[in-house]
Design a protein that fits this description.
By secondary structure, the chain is an alpha/beta fold. The chain contains seven helices and 28 strands. Helix content is 18%, strand content 30%. It has a six-stranded mixed β-sheet with strand order 7-4-6-5-9-8, with no helix packed on it. A six-stranded mixed β-sheet has the order 16-13-17-21-20-18, with helices on both faces. It binds adenosine monophosphate (AMP) and magnesium ion. Residues 194, 196, 198-199, 211, 213-216, 259-261, 263, 265, 312-315, 384 line the site of adenosine monophosphate.
């Protein structure tokens, strides 16, 4: 196989590269929708709007255990009211159609429908009861402890829009509006190809100078969490012919992720082989660390165009570049509306110094309390240090112009 060199490209900034993938994603068509059971659809993306099938709440709902009353009767509290019934939560509480007249009250439970005539609920804590008479110690405002019918949502309102992920909140809404089956986009198939002569399958004993293939598994986890279906290809050796065969196979998927072989080394063959397929490169290299050599492009293959990422092989680089750049493309293929990166802020616990020029993502541990979130950089040996990132739960994001960081200053984090 004869490979021609690929011209040395200009590196993009982190922001520019992120814009490239976001714009690319906005032009992609998502996978087809299918009807799935609610549980099968967890983590996928809604292909329809979920609408309120009735008013929420469907009846004025008591938010307390106590007594349904007329607020006007309690203006001169304490007041004695005549008890005319008991209303418990549940569809056909036989007393839910009683009407409260002046001077009357009904015992009511949390979640039960407030009866006609009543306009407030007093908490049981402010009452004493004796047979059919309840003494209420304090006045209540009209509407107190009642959620009005339709005040959370009116029938027909979109509660969760198409393009949203089926998270725990969306799943609860689907259940609440009576949708045991929902339309969701099928998981995009994401081929994962690890490369490198030194990389061995995890079922084989590695030689002293070989390393086990961990990137395929970090990527499989990230792909699955992003709503994709990981398709794992055998490890490709650093040979253009064998790499070409496996790359072709991977390009049949909806998205191809390659790890390793994208730096400037003599055996970094991924970009040249993809170039020989007439790939279009949207970027080759981003001014970040880890992950600077990351490559993004696509190949027209058969009747479709498949996007691909060449992710640098160092384990932390692979993880970071997936999250920063591949995830938005996976989101778009999954039918998701664009999602922002999960940034946060916390107070730095220990000082550190870096070099300027790159946007850096340094493994760190977020802790502290909700009043004072704190972050500690995790000692690491660089982007190959898988064990350091496994002790972390976020990255400290260092802008390219910053060098020295002091304890006590607020820093930006990218959460995993
Ligand atoms: P490369 O990007 O091919 O230059 O590889 C950079 C570093 O990442 C080297 O130390 C590789 O051994 C390591 N590496 C490459 N692929 C993998 C993989 N699949 N799993 C774990 N480490 C890898
Ligand atoms: Mg390699």
């Amino acid at each position: 196989m004869v490979l021609t060199g690929v011209a040395e490209p200009k590196l993009l900034s982190f922001t520019e590269a992120r814009q490239v993938v976001e714009q690319y994603g906005s032009r992609l068509s998502p996978t087809d929708p299918e009807m799935l059971s609610l549980l099968e659809a967890l983590g996928l993306v809604l292909a329809e709007d979920l609408r309120a099938d009735r008013d929420f709440p469907p009846f004025p709902r008591s938010t307390r255990d106590g007594y349904a009353v007329r607020a006007a009767d309690l203006v001169a509290a304490p007041a004695r009211l005549r008890l005319i019934g008991e209303i418990k939560a549940g569809a056909n509480s036989d007393q839910s159609d009683i009407t409260i007249a002046a001077g009357e009250a009904a015992e009511i439970m949390t979640g039960a429908p407030v009866p006609l005539g009543a306009d407030a609920v007093v908490m049981v804590e402010y009452t004493q009861r004796r047979d059919a008479v309840v003494t209420v110690q304090r006045a209540v405002a009209r509407g107190e402890n009642i959620v009005a019918a339709g005040s959370e949502a009116t029938q027909g309102t979109i509660m969760v829009a198409r393009g949203s992920r089926v998270t725990h909140t969306a799943a609860a809404v689907a259940a609440a509006v009576g949708r045991p089956e929902i339309a969701a986009h099928r998981r995009p198939r994401v081929a994962i190809l690890a490369t490198g002569d030194e990389v061995v399958d995890i079922n084989l004993p590695p030689g002293l100078k070989e390393i086990r293939n961990s990137n395929t598994y970090s990527l499989a986890a990230q792909v699955y969490a992003g709503g994709g279906e990981p398709l794992i290809l055998p490890v490709a050796p650093d040979s253009a012919e064998e790499l070409a065969l496996l790359l072709r196979q991977g390009l049949r998927a909806d998205l191809l992720l390659v790890t390793g072989g994208v730096s400037a080394g003599k055996y970094d063959l991924v970009a040249p082989v993809l170039a020989s397929f007439e790939a279009q490169f949207h970027f080759r290299g981003v001014r970040i660390q880890p992950g600077k050599p990351v490559v993004f492009g696509d190949v027209a293959f058969g009747d479709k165009t498949t996007p691909f990422f060449g992710l640098p092989g160092n384990p932390v680089s692979t993880m970071v570049t997936f999250q920063l750049f591949a995830r938005p493309v996976l989101d778009a293929l999954s039918g998701s509306t664009p999602q922002p990166l999960p940034f946060a802020q916390a107070m730095l616990q220990s000082p550190f110094t870096t070099k300027t020029g790159l946007t850096r993502f340094l493994p760190a541990k977020l802790g502290g309390t909700h009043e004072q979130p704190e972050v500690e950089p995790v000692r690491w040996q660089g982007s190959g240090d898988l064990m350091a990132v496994a002790r972390s739960n976020c990255y400290i994001v260092v802008p390219p112009e910053r060098e020295h960081f002091s304890a006590g200053e607020a820093v930006t984090l990218l959460l995993f």
